[in-house]
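One-letter codes give the sequence; the fold follows as tokens. Both lines appear below.
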Amino acid sequence: MKGKLTVLMITAFVDMLGLIIVYPLLPFYAQHLGANAAMVGALVASFSVAQLLAAPVWGWLSDRYGRRPAIIVGLLLSAVAYIIFAWAGSLWLLFLSRVVQGLGGGTIGVVQAYVSDVSEPKDRAKTLGWLSAVTSLGAVIGPAIGSALVRFGGHHAPGIGSALLCLLVSIFAWRYLTESRGTATMEMAAMTGHQVKGKNAITRVILHPNEPAPRLILIYAIAIGAFYGTTPILPLILGERLGINEQNVGYFVMYLGGVGVVVRTGILGRMIEWLGEARLCRLGLVLLAAGLALVAAITSYPMMFLSFTLMPLGTAFIFPAVTAMLSRVVSKAERGLYMGVQHTFGGISRVSFPLATGFAMDRMGKGVPYVVAGVLVLLTVLLTFSMERYAEPPVVAAKPAA
């Protein structure tokens, strides 16, 4: 198990590194091509539209044919997207690069399903936390690399660098990444696949929101949309209020990812043992809501760093706990499917939030959308009540014998 996870973690790290190299540069590139905040929001959303359409298909294909081929093909698609980004001289080419990147990024649910396949149920939240940690480590290093590449190599360099990374890691995965499930398991998934298709699972989340899996998926969707759907547009606020540009924005985004790495590698496991997954998720939602709302008050570096600390602290608690609980309330044969559905709803949210954020920025002020996002995240705390029955309980220390 450790060998498989090590190879997967390396693959996920390099994949995230390539993504995050270009991530904070997109708003500035779009502005140079004449885009306003609403257009930047649409560019951010286009990735999520493609990911939304691709995620359940990737999930089903990985259940049927295996996790390994899905991950490798997703990496190759991402490499194509970065080549387009490198030479995008118009907004429509930026849109095309984002769509192709979203198609490749639809495999994130497959990666999480791989982790679930090879982890014991009691260790799943911690292992998913480590997966989040290595991807967050890519998010720490990537932004600084992106800004440095722009400074020393020009505007083409970040896209070229990201494409090369994806090609290299796809070769690495082809050589060293082994399948996480045996042939018998995939045959069982093929035999039972007709029972729960992607469309039926999506419909079930909508029609039965009080069931455990739909509630967890809705919590995930709102939280991920509020964070990942709004933070790509943050450089517009940082540029306007603090004078930050594409040559230095990466260093501030690096801090945002760095906090997540510290939390996931340093305290997440102990927090799960202390609070349990359900209460930890609840705490994370409160922290994320506060961090989002504070974006509206960013007029100085101390306020920016406070907001940039609370947001990743919240997400580090929310996402591993929610995904671990979801993996328990669905069958193993349907795990890839439901994690794909989870990312489908996350994709809907990540389409809605940037579109609404960009529109509101142009008409209501740049800080208002972040306050609204914080309130929506805070309201999802109501969905966490009674979820303890689906979570690993806190670890209770044994009392010494009398």
In short: The domain at 2-175+196-390 is CATH 1.20.1250.20 (Growth Hormone; Chain: A;). Residues 183-196, 398-402 have pLDDT under 50 and may be disordered. The two ends are 40 Å apart (CA to CA). The CA atoms of residues 11 and 169 lie 6 Å apart.
